[in-house]
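Model it.
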Amino acid sequence: MKTCMCVMAMATFAWASVLCAPMVMAADAGKGAGKGEEKAVSAAIELVGDPIVIAGEAPYCAWADLVRLSTNGNLMVVYAAGAGHLKPDLAIHKRISGDDGKTWSEPDTVVPALNKGYSVRDPHVIQLADGTLLLNYFSYPGGPETCRAHVIRSTDNGKTWSKPVTINPGVPFVWMATCGKILALKNGELLLPLYYRLQKKAGTVGVIRSKDKGKTWSGLVSIQENNEDGEMEIAELSDGKLVALIRPSHVAFSKDKGKTWSKPQETVALHAPGLLVDGEQLLMNYRSKGYGFASLGLSFDDGRTWPVTKELLNGGADCAYGAIVRIQPQGAGTYYTAFYAPYKGSVKIVGWYFNVVK
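Modeled.
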């Protein structure tokens, strides 16, 4: 588990040099990008321009997520900022962009630092149909038994936020964390991806459901057991099926809105996926090669294989954990991704425009 279990063994990191990888065609990128027979795909991910610094107000800015505000079209980014990966001063900040990611406002604090333990971390944000913003994160003030997942809400575009709702799964557990966006289903229900340890069981990956816009949560469903590091994001595909991409290298599906899930199968090695469904294709921001590069991936078979990949910045153990949005209207590129990586002297949140070329 990234910051609730194995994080204690990661007190130091081997920093790698920052570099930009060349464009790779799908026929080459598909080798090793998933299990099973690969088909040649005439497509590539093409980066546009240079990385854009979104946030660098602290020595360590990490774990970014994006949402487009329905009220005004602005982009909001949320992330954690502090002295380092395991530092007690990490707080959750947000910034706003009115020009699709070219420039960003000064930071605002959304969740203040705990100033103990490993503080607050891994924020993700969505906006519901009625305009309500929901932000999920987890806190880690002491040992693993103190690790808890929370949800806060805003009804004024993020100017003010509610007190946190702490997730109680309704069954005895030791710790619980979250590292993925809440998914708003077309039927109005919400699913929150979690990884956790139940009493008398090993680490587990699953989802919990809300039927009242995130005010209460119940109905914990297991997707994968014996996984302490199960950072996961879920998405609703164009055919209504749900897909879950799970660290370190698995994909699972649900045909009944998350009530039951298929047995996870092998896919590309990944840490902390950030997903975007765009028609019949699935895009992902993820850390590739275990501790390696912030990368982009493109799948044409719902995440089973990833024949098109693109390395962004090399960060070793400190990179990726990002998100992708479409540009409206299409400008510098079709898509914009935000993620974290060592860049120009410190660990920053950076953005990058890109296109999918076919």
